[in-house]
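Ticket closed. Logging final result for Lipoprotein.
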Amino acid sequence: MLPRAALLLLLPLLTTCSARDSAVAEDGRERLIGLRADDLRLCAGVPNLTANSAGGEFWTYDRNPPAAGVSAPVPVIGGSLSVSAGSTCRVTFQLVDGKVTRIGYSAASDLPMSQNSACAPVVQGCLRLVDQNEVTPE
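Final structure:
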């Protein structure tokens, strides 16, 4: 029964990490407003999609990180018990006059309280540069 108990103990850790990453994504939504287009390209990379409209430019980044999880045999039921977390994310930055004005997330996650956790890697590098005063949102 120990492997099953260990798996059940890992679930809160996966949820905690995902909740932390979701908070990073939400932090980015606020702190990256005003970031210049060149700085965004520097820290987030080249977007997967771009579009223009009367509302400005839209840069979209898609992220599909590998699912995190563990699997161990549970002899009582003769199979295995698996705890995993899969998620995807699409981040869209709206730019007006070359600056970020809004950030939207479209994400899906298998874990509670981690809706935007897969979006964290897109904004994490930008937040790091802001924290190090290497780029400054205006």
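The CA atoms of residues 19 and 114 lie 5 Å apart. No further action required.
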